[in-house]
Design goal:
Elements: E1 2-10, E2 21-28, E3 31-32, E4 36-37, E5 50-57, E6 64-72, H1 81-84, E7 87-95, E8 102-110, E9 114-119, H2 132-148, E10 151-152, E11 161-162, H3 178-198, H4 210-216, H5 223-231, H6 235-244, E12 252-253, H7 265-272, H8 278-284, E13 287-291, E14 302-303, E15 306-307, E16 314-318, E17 327-332, E18 343-344, H9 350-391, H10 397-402, H11 409-419, H12 426-430, H13 434-448, H14 451-454, H15 456-463, H16 472-495, H17 499-503, H18 506-519, H19 535-549, H20 551-557, H21 560-564, H22 587-593, H23 597-610, H24 631-655
Antiparallel strand pairs: 1-5, 1-7, 2-3, 2-4, 2-6, 6-9, 7-8, 10-11, 12-13, 13-16, 14-15, 16-17, 17-18
Helix pairs in contact: 9-13, 9-18, 9-20, 16-19, 16-24
Length: 676
């Protein structure tokens, strides 16, 4: 007979408490106790409660290996909500008759009649000497999770995703909390009601003028959105958005002009000035290129019964060696030069030049929304999430490190497949390339997507943009990447004493392989690892996963509404084909090319909603779920948080001197995971 003290912490979320019966079984090297009820007089396991129980084991189970957690309805024949009555358990602490207390992290929902095996928090990564019971428990846990979270192919050529149709079908552990879900739909309802009241969502015609657009569509102002409205026609602002706008990942140094972009010295002399030439500036490294060639020949949509149009522009930009803002030099709206594909210049007619820039901004919308945002910042994080849930047991240190960066990702992506990229939904209703165009782009990008492009320092070097001034996405991103990399390196060094320990971790290798095969479709040319051999490679890989699930997503999603609330700066579609000659554009023609009123409002409302974090957020580096129980990783977490705080301080100090502050990589604003 042995007496144990059991301390139980219930979560603080709405609905976390339960009326159900809770019991524990203690599993040790000498056997297992029967379920030991955790029962006081009155109600236990209230929301936010931490409660102590004394239980007696009828036998000596030896060294404690596991806790089995049992949850059953209060009444034997309970049905409906009484039977399901979910409970969120934070952790359980077991204090044996002798020795130190053992902490068992849980941080999971249990629903209905269920069982859950918990392992003590200070678990090692070297599994070879594990007790056979622990080995069996890990296998059973992974099998259960693989049964719960299975893969499916949503569209050919896309990364694979969770095999669930609606958010109603999701397990409680991956769903939005009640509070977050309620706030999301309340915000959606308020914005939708305002649109309907103004009569904007049903109006299928054109805007009458830019003035009418401003008067009629005064929706949820932001300081950045106001800045866009005031400066959208300026060349310097147009160019700056390639550095610090919603898609700051395409610009690259131009060492030689593409053969299909025949810009001449005479064309650009007014901007370059006397005494220089294209050849000289190319050699100096002062020219940059943004090529939207992936859009060439992409499928286009029909909106309000009218065919829509797309372009695949090339934009040449110039950075004066002595400083000053980045400037656009030339724009070609197709990948095929010739008499019907003129090169537009800043010296052209005002409306010709403005229309050419607007076509580029429409291309930015399509590439960002389909590729940088949907593919790279949602679909790939879903792959990382799925592999983490399916291949890493809860006691694995990589699971503990990564699970905060997967929070709510499966919910928001399932919701996107319901309400954004499904037939008849937003992408089909209101974007120029529609669902088929999105699918075309994703399939094309998957053929060229590389590991380098997902690792920020390598991507910056590959694009040759290390030295371009005023590139705050690069500057802030490298600071955040560096802090993450140091944090990950510290955690890896705690649990992996050698390169051999990385190679020998079969669960880690299964995780990496599943990401490679399910996310990158086994394409070796991507450079994405299918296995990892060293601690250094593991640190880079895990940093890549965390960065893309947090900072990268926020950087390319948080500015969507700011960029699009004044629609001419980021039109989701174009209703006239790209111009084939110069001198034909007037104000009326410019307006006629822009999206209709209902498509404009549909997109602006959607991007506003997706920019509104509906509460229950966890900023980068905030880990209230204490999966790590040892002192060493907890010290590393504290150091990581200090580094992020200093980065934020530096960013805010710099931003005080900027006309348009760059806030999209300020750590307290970054969410730990893709959750909206």
């Amino acid at each position: 007979m042995a007496e144990y003290r059991v301390t139980v912490s219930t979560g603080e979320a709405i609905g976390a408490g339960t009326w159900n019966r809770i019991a524990v079984s203690i599993v040790g090297t000498r056997g297992e106790t029967p379920p030991l009820p955790l029962d006081h007089f009155g109600k236990e396991f209230s929301k936010g409660a931490v409660e102590d129980f004394q239980v007696e084991s009828p036998q000596d189970v030896g060294q404690v290996l596991l806790l089995q957690l049992h949850k059953d309805p209060l009444l034997p024949r309970a049905v409906g909500p009484l039977a399901r009555d979910a409970w969120f358990c934070n952790w359980i602490q077991l204090s044996p008759p002798r020795g130190t207390p053992l902490r068992f992290p849980c941080y999971q929902w249990m629903e209905g009649s269920s069982r859950l095996a918990l392992r003590e928090g200070a678990a090692r990564v070297s599994w070879g000497d594990d007790h056979s019971l622990l080995q069996q428990q890990r296998k059973e846990e992974l099998q259960a999770k693989q049964d719960s979270y299975s893969w499916k192919t949503y569209r050919p050529g896309w990364p694979h995703c969770l095999n669930e149709k609606t958010v109603r079908d999701l397990d409680l552990n991956i769903k939005y909390s009640i509070a977050k879900n309620a706030n999301f739909y309340l915000k959606a309802g308020s914005g939708f009601t305002e649109m309907i009241f103004k009569g904007l969502l049903d109006r299928k015609g054109l805007w009458k003028s830019l003035d009418e657009m401003k008067r009629m569509f005064n929706f949820r102002k932001t300081p950045a959105g106001e800045y866009v409205y005031e400066h959208w026609q300026e060349d310097t602002f147009f160019a700056s958005q390639f550095l610090n706008g919603l898609n700051p990942v395409l610009i690259r140094r131009c060492r030689s002009l593409p053969e299909n972009f025949p810009v001449t010295n005479d064309m650009v002399a007014p901007v370059l000035g006397p005494g220089t030439s294209l050849q000289a500036e190319l050699a100096r490294g002062s020219l940059f290129l943004v090529d939207h060639g992936i859009l060439s020949g992409v499928s286009t949509n029909v909106i309000n019964g009218k065919p829509q149009f797309s372009a695949a522009p090339m934009t040449l930009l110039y950075q004066r060696p002595g400083g000053g803002p980045l400037l656009p030099l030339a724009i070609q709206l197709s990948q095929t030069p010739g008499p019907t594909s003129p090169i537009f210049l800043p010296s052209d007619n005002k409306w010709d030049w403005l229309l050419a820039k607007t076509w580029v901004r429409n291309a930015e919308f399509s590439v960002n929304e389909a590729l940088t945002h949907l593919l790279e910042a949602h679909l790939l994080p879903e792959v990382f999430t799925m592999a983490t849930l399916r291949q890493l047991p809860q006691c694995h240190p990589l699971f503990k490190l990564l699970i905060p960066h997967t929070r709510y990702t499966l919910h928001i992506n399932t919701l996107a497949r319901e309400l954004l990229i499904a037939p008849g939904q937003v992408v089909e209703r209101s974007t120029g390339i529609g669902i088929e165009g999105f699918s075309d782009l994703i399939q094309r990008r998957m053929e060229t997507l590389s590991y380098t492009s997902l690792c920020l320092p390598a991507d910056i070097r590959a694009r040759g943009v290390e030295g371009i001034p005023g590139y705050y996405y690069r500057d802030d991103g490298l600071q955040v990447w560096g802090a993450m990399e140091s944090f990950v390196s510290e955690i890896i060094s705690i649990y992996y004493p050698s390169d051999a320990s990385v190679r020998d971790d079969s669960e880690l290798q299964a995780w990496v392989w599943e990401i490679f095969s399910e996310g990158f479709l086994g394409r070796e040319s991507s450079g994405v690892p299918s296995s990892l051999d060293t601690r250094k490679s593991l640190v880079q890989y895990v940093t890549m996963v965390i960065f893309n699930c947090s900072a990268k997503h926020y950087a390319i999603s948080a500015g969507q509404f700011d960029s699009c609330v004044w629609m001419p700066n980021l039109p989701p579609t174009m209703q006239l084909p790209p111009p084939t000659s110069k001198g034909q554009t007037e104000p009326e023609g410019f307006i006629a090319a822009l999206p209709p009123v209902n498509a404009t409002c549909d997109i602006v409302f959607t991007l506003w909603l997706l920019s509104q974090e509906p509460g229950d957020r966890r900023p980068l580096g905030t880990y209230p779920d204490e999966h790590f129980t040892e002192e060493a990783p907890r010290r590393s977490i504290a150091t990581f948080q200090s580094r992020l705080a200093q980065i934020s301080k530096d960013i805010r100090k710099r931003n005080m001197e900027l006309a348009l502050p760059y806030t999209y990589l300020d750590p307290p604003l970054i969410e730990n995971s893709v959750s909206i």
